[in-house]
């Protein structure tokens, strides 16, 4: 039988990793009373990871509390990141790099001739050294970044190409093991029962699962797929043992710990569907929560649909994990502004 850890014991394991204070913590856990009323199902709460700070917030602020000391301690002097043009990761890494005075080179896919808006605008303001690849170059963005890395090495630098390393892939889970301890405290303060957390099927959710399993909690999890091109196996499931090892834990996550919903992706990552567009407007016009078109809007669409279709039981307390992504709203301004539907509450 697995020996469960107390929150203090789990905290002690996390505390063994080097860490710096970056995120505004704890983030609030709040009710969404008007959405709850509108949907007429279970109580809906929201964990506000969009309020972590670090240049407009998001889940990555927790990651960088661990990642930046790791990179700096190993003597790297420049970070290189390969991301999509509207990436939140790209922006938040730029912000975290500034916090420790680290040079930051950003290779952005499908970015040439784009409107400088949303995350791309913030990347620029934060001073990231931008390489805006066109569609053709984007096919070999990793090769492009590797060549940059080799040039820097030849100049005597020690570049950290994020995509070459394991630590960035598990640090997002570590950050959310920490978030799990925080959420437990908030759940206890608010006396919430039958907790069911819904979020992007990704690292944050895996971290929360591990926190729950380590502490012997019966929280349930639903992960919403947002991208057909990133199979969950390679993205998260293959790293379950890495996380266990990094924190020296008695348990880790498995595929069956998360109900995965993949029917809300629509045409694919970065394409705003009518359902997600509507969900963004519903969350905004009920509890004034702004979701983004790529990640949290998709989760909100799933939450609304699942409540309407009976995918949650009414005695559950749903916690919507808002993982940020706010600047992407401005990248999709035209489609969002063109929304014509009515989001009036049903009578
Ligand atoms: C807003 C937002 N939510 C969720 C995710 C998924 O992150 P993770 O897999 O670390 O949970 C991302 C990833 O970039 C994101 O930008």
Question: How would you describe the overall organization of this protein?
Answer:
The protein has helices at 7-14, 33-39, 60-73, 88-99, 118-125, 135-138, 141-154, 167-189, 203-214, 232-235, 240-247, 274-287, 296-309, 328-331, 333-337; strands spanning 29-31, 43-48, 78-84, 103-109, 129-132, 159-161, 195-200, 220-224, 259-261, 317-322. The chain is α/β, with parallel strands linked by helices and 347 residues long. The protein folds into 2 domains: 7-58 and 168-337, Rossmann fold, CATH 3.40.50; 62-164, Rossmann fold (3-Layer(aba) Sandwich). The strands form 2 sheets. Strands 1-2-10-7-8-9 form a 6-stranded mixed sheet, sandwiched between helices. Helix 9 links the parallel strand 7 (195-200) and strand 8 (220-224). Helix 1 (7-14) runs antiparallel to helix 8, helix 4 (88-99) packs parallel to helix 5 and helix 8 (167-189) packs across helix 11. The model has no long low-confidence stretch (mean pLDDT 96). Pyridoxal-5'-phosphate binds at residues 58-59, 88-89, 172, 200, 202-204, 292, 295-296, 323-325.
